Amino acid sequence: MKSFGKFRVRKSPIIASVNPLTQKPSFVDLASECEKGLFDHSPVHCEDGINGTLFLKGREGDGYLAVLKPNDGENEPENDKSSDSSHGISSEEASIRELAAYQLDCKNFYGVPSTGLVEICYSGFQDGEIVSSSPVVVRRKYGSLQRFKKNHGSAEDIGISVFPVKEIHKIAILDVQILNADRHDGNILFERLPNGGFQLIPIDHGFSLPHKLDKCWFGWLTWPQVKLPFSTEEIDHIRSIDVERDAQILKDLGISTDCIRNMRLSVHLLKRGAELGLTLYDIGAIICRVNGTLYLSDLENIIERAEEETGITFSTCEDVNEKKIFKLAFQFIEEKIERVLEKKKKQGISLSKSSRNLLRNNPFVKENMEPCMVALSPRLNKMRCNPRSPLASPISTRRLCL
Fold it and tell me: Which of 21, 56, 178, 194 supports an S-S bond with 117, CB 3.0-4.6 Å?
């Protein structure tokens, strides 16, 4: 075996180098394992992925080790930022957002798999920048590398009624925090636990932290679990989100100011909504265009109204004007929350039929519902349930009207 610059040439002959651009010990080890695996095992194309998503194996070759999402799609046309599928985010920006989602999950509350950025030089790539042509052609790619999490499928493979409330809530909270514009059943993986329960794994966050909110949609808005209250643990986590720390993380990653400002608004809505008694459905319905793509969402209307009253453009304003427009936008968010709460109060606290069936038929959901009851805010605690509501079973009306 002889040396060839940074690469090693073996009898294959295969040349491979995985250079971690994210210097975290655990990620450096992952990159090293992937490099060793490339000498003996070719990357495997992901049939369901976009932009040339590849699965990488370790030296032993027993299962996948990591997922590579190149900035330039393997055998794919160049990403068009103006296309609907890109959500206005380029492949390079998407890689950075994959890393951002992991770094914002600093307490591993959401369970985002370990992620980093890499530079890979490999003689097996069919396209990409050529860095050497002797003894074989070596091409270079940049992208995000994420540790592969063993799973039993995605949410689209199984009925969502079996998923625990807390597992769905953790992913929904993440999506609100990062304004994920591409959450659907296919990028929520599940693992069956020995006790018969399920653990959910969120992946694919490249289309989060958008420049604009027009494409923002959460697939879980149609799931009954998100209409259930936050648990005490979830509210404590939401309170602990440090928006200034997160903004600095995003700034250090090179994410643009307009995207960071959108994140600040969504986190403020999340914090205040959770404190005052909104559900994740209520919060998501404020962010997303639930009345059709032609109509602005409530959060978009709030931004537009704040811009009109201040004469400041939210996405491009100077830092000196930022506090002024944020103060007004936050005020409008408070007013919107008040209106939602007033509407809920008039209707009485009630769960949808699907939510009641979910509680009745699923012991794992019922178990996770128990701590949710104590999370009702003082404002909602004063309300009274409709005596005609069938909520007496499986959970008594008294329990819901603490």
Answer: 21
Top-ranked range on mean pLDDT: pick from 271-285, 304-318, 384-398: 271-285
3-state helix/strand/coil string of the chain: CEEECCEEECCCCCCEEEEECCCCHHHHHHHHHHHHHHCCCCCEECCCCCCCCEEEECCCCCCEEEEEEECCCCCCCCCCCCCHHHCCCCHHHHHHHHHHHHHHCCCCCCCCCCEEEEEEEECCCCCCEEEECCCCCEEEEEEEEEECCCCCCEHHHCCHHHCCHHHHHHHHHHHHHHCCCCECHHHEEEEECCCCCEEEEECCCCCCCCCCCCCCCEHHHHCHHHHCCCCHHHHHHHHHCCHHHHHHHHHHCCCCHHHHHHHHHHHHHHHHHHHHCCCHHHHHHHHCCCCCCCCCCHHHHHHHHHHHHHCCCCCCCCHHHHHHHHHHHHHHHHHHHHHHHHHHHHHCCCCCHHHHHHHHHCHHHHHHHHHHHHHCCHHHHCCCCCCCCHHHCCCCHHHHCC
Alpha carbon 113 to its chain centroid, in Å, reads 11
Mean pLDDT of 46-73: 86
Q: What is the pLDDT of residue 32?
A: 94
- The rounded percent of the chain whose pLDDT value lies above 70 is 79
Length of the chain: 402
- pTM of the predicted structure, to 2 decimals: 0.82
